[in-house]
Structure formats: structure tokens, C-alpha cells
Amino acid sequence: MTISGKAAGGSVLGARSIELCGVALRGPVLNGSGTFDAIAARRAFGDSLLDRFPFDAFVSKTITLEPRRGNPPPRLWETAAGMINSIGLPNKGLSGFLDEDLPRLAELPVPLVVSVMGFSLDELARLVASVDARDEVALIELNVSCPNVETGLVMGADPAETARAVERMRPLAEKPLIVKLTPNANEPAAVAAAAEGAGADAVSLVNTLKGMALDPATRRPWLGGRTGGLSGPAVRAIALEQVAAVAARVRIPVIGMGGIAAGTHAAEFLDAGASALAVGTESFRDPAAGRRIGAELADLAQARSLERAD
Amino acid sequence: MARTLAPPERRVARVSGVERLGAYHVVTALDESGPVEPQPGQFYMLSAEHGWGGGADERPYLPRAFSYARARPAQGGVSLSFLLEAVGPGTERLSELRPDDGLALVGPLGIGFGAVRAGTRPLLAGGGVGVAPLLCLGEALLAAGGDARPPTVLLGFRSAGHAQAAALFGEEPQVVTDDGSVGRQALVTELLAAELDNEPAATVFACGPPPMLEAVRALCSERDVGCELALESGMACGFGACFGCVVPTRRGYIRLCLEGPVVDAAALESVLFEGAGH
Fold first, then answer.
1. How far is A128 from chain B (nearest CA, A)?
2. How far is the C-alpha of A195 from the C-alpha of A163, rounded, in Å?
3. Quick check: A288 contacting B, CB < 8 Å?
4. What are A142-155's pLDDT values in tens digits?
5. Which pTM value belongs to this model?
6. How many Cβ pairs within 8 Å bridge chains A and B?
7. pLDDT tens digits for B163-217?
8. ipTM of the complex
């Protein structure tokens, strides 16, 4: 049995370093967008964070054109083996991000992926063009899990909408474009195929699954944003199936995520066809989770390779 | 305001004791790989090394944030004590820890209490399990010595069982309860008002349930007294990653784990915002 990925080189077995869309990474473990704030973490942990940076590439929190304050609290609900969040994409907006955050993120010891979301294709185009112009950025991730205000459709839930968005963005960016897929689509593999057809360089999945919790005292929605997104080990089986279905359908690299909390889980996602991985909610429990999972995966790959050699 | 940096990973401290104290438990563990001088008001994200999950509703899953109550230098590191009341799956599991069990922790996190303002005396006002950070703050203020005035400690509890936590405080604290079973039947803010009547030049440091903190904030605002509040908010991570613990301030939302949990009361319109205490 081998742990195989579809990244350049065909396999991450043995060697930990990979290439993702032409960008060399020291290992296959990214963070899920919005699950780690490297600037905030540096305030809490100091520069020891840089010496022991948990990820092999850093994905920014999603930025939008205008600043957003995010949803009213409460924003979190703990579930069995997971959590629901309703954060609402708080961010400084494009210019705040470029002026204040990007120089700090450029100090990280790993390549930078910037996640962007637009509420219209024009907004998304401005974001993509502005971010693409910055040397500090290695890859761009399109968060398409939002409604297009022009059509009312969630871009990433519909293959045609996704294709339209990627077609429009493709010529604006020299950098690789990753499309972050939502699991709240009828057929994520069809959306992935549409993204690939329109020129996406990679797809990443899963985003959170739509969920809700009621306040036991009032019997009304607990979260300030009413509904939220479920993540953590609770979603892993669903994520694994979606990653496998997408990887079977596209040739471009698949970045798999959804409840990965150990090297064994990471190996499953690679076995299902992912080329790279992302750790999200597990980082909330342990800020070093990405590094631990990467090390466990390397140990596992070595053990499997010895097993094969016997 | 003071911040001691945390190592960038979860580590395991060995539990040395879990003491029952009326309605509360005091969990003490030896942290051999973290900083030995956390700042009063800072907190740790805690979970049991094993068996975290599988309680009510198959929870807990996320770690729980606790201000440390006491930090003592110890052989090989620092002995950290946390005060908790078993009210849900997380606190229940933590209260069941036994000596030699592993207490997983990340911390110290957040910003602790600031300095006593010049020319004033420190007044510490605590409610319920919120007395925890005032214990280490009181000890630090006493240890500072010099010209500094010793702190006056005012504590409020629901009942006699809860009021047993007052025994942790060395200096004689003034204690009131909701039911009058220990001390007078009164709110801790009544004690605070009386102290401010006697001597208005004070810096107030408070921690407790949101309605109490709101009463403290309003009182200090009305009398123009400097006041720092240690707030609580549901947190997933404790280090700014999840954006879950925001609290509205006069300058917008702040992440309590990064820019708190101790905040200047003047920065808040009210402690009782929509969703507070969740």
C-alpha cells in the first residue's frame, strides 16, 4: 500500500516536499482559509511561531473588496466532534489587507495563498487583479461559497456560475488559481469539472457544511448569524467522499480537507486522490496541529514504504 | 497591560491535585514546558489529555478557556491552579481529572491586568468562578510591596457552597451572597459602592458574570473611576484564529482572546451586548 498523491512527481511517498501548481512546498500540509490567523498567532506566540511554523503554505483568511465587521455574536457552537461557526468573513477589505497584512504575511517562512471572495464578478475581478500584482503572493484561492448579488445564486453551488467566474478571472491572473469548492452543492465533482474546464489550476475542498443550532433556553437559533458552517471530525467522512469524487473527475491537483486531525486521516485523503491537504478546526485545539499531522504523515509514509519493500 | 507569550503548541501538564472546594474544584497541574511567569488575567485553553469527548452530547470537543487562579514556581516548572465549576461536559471532565492525569494546555494567552493607576488603591471585585484571576492579581499586588497599597478584595457568590472559594484569599476578603448564607445578602457592587464612597481614588479590577460586570462598569463610569474588566466569551482557539470570541467595543468588535480578556471598562458601551455570556 502506498500513499499517493497526484501532485507533480506523482507521489508524496518518502519525500515530504511537493510541488503544487508549480510552487514548491516543503510538505503537503496547508491551513484551511479562515482557520489560522498568522498575524494574530504571532502576537500570542511571538517569533517562535515562525521557527516552528505549522504549515507548508499559508492560506489567508478570505478578503473582500470592502471591510466587513462580521456577524454578531455568538459565533460558535460546539457539536459532537466538531463545531458550527458563523463568523461572517470579518476582514479589513482589499486595501487594508494589502497595506497592513500582506507585508506581515510575507515574513512567514512558507509560500502565501490569498483567499478572495467577491459579491459580484466585477468585485472578484478587482480582487484577483490586485492580489495577482503582488510578488508576496504565490497562489490565489477563489472562495466561491457566497451568493452573487447579480444572480442570487451561490457561485460555487452551480457548475455554470463557477465556470463563468473562473473564465472571467483566468486572464486576470498570472498566478495559479485555486477554486475552493463548497460541499453544499448538489454535485461538487461537477462544479470541480466546470472549474477545471474554465482554467482553474487546482481545487480545494471541503468548505464547511451548512448547519444550525438552537439555544436550549430560548429554542431559537443560537448563532448571531442564525445558521453557520459545520467543521471538525464530524464532517470527515463526507469530505473524504467528496474529495474522492472530485479527484476521480479532474486532472488538476485537489487540496483535501475536512476534519483532518491526525496523520492517518491525512493519508486517507491522499489515498482518495488529494495532492495536498489542509488542516482547519484541529488547529483551534492545537496551534501546532499542522506540523504534528505532517510529521505523522511522513512517518506513516515511511512505514508503508518499508512494508512495501519487504 | 501585560502579555507573557505562549509556546506555539499544545503541551501536557501533569495533574498534581484536584481539590473540592464547596461548589468548585481547584485543578492543579505542573507545567514543565511553559513560561513560569504568566500575567494575572491571562488564560489557558484546557482539555483533558485523554477522554476529551464522549460526555453529554458526545462533547466536549473544543478546549475550554480558564484564567489561571494561581501560578507557583515548582520543581521543573510552574504549578498552575485553575478554579472551575462543573456545569457542562468540559468542566465536568476537567473536574474528574486525577493526580498524574494529563492536562493538555495552550497558554498563557491574552492580555492580563494593567497597573494600579497612580495615586489610587486597588479594589478587586469578583463574582462566582470569576474570582479566579483576582486571586493571582491580589497576590501579585501584595508581593509588589513598596509604596503600593494592599488590595481590598470584594467577593460575591450565589450560595454558601460557592462562597467557600473565598477561603483561597489570604487577606480577609469581604464576602456577600445572593441568599445571605454567608455574609450579608447583597450584591458585590454594593460593597464596591461603599468602598468608593469611603475613598473614591481607586482602580477597580473585576471579573464575574456579565450582569455583575455591567453594574461595576456603570458604577465606575458614573464615578469616573479607572476600571478593568476580565470578560468571558465562547472561544474555540484562544489565539485569534477562529474569530469566534468577539465582543463589541466603542471601536468595533475585538477578539477577546487577543485584545482581552482584560479590557478597559471605558472601551465598552455595555457588557450586556446581544449574545453576551454565551
1. 24
2. 5
3. yes
4. 999 877 777 777 89
5. 0.95
6. 139
7. 999 999 987 899 999 999 999 999 999 999 999 999 999 999 999 999 999 999 9
8. 0.96
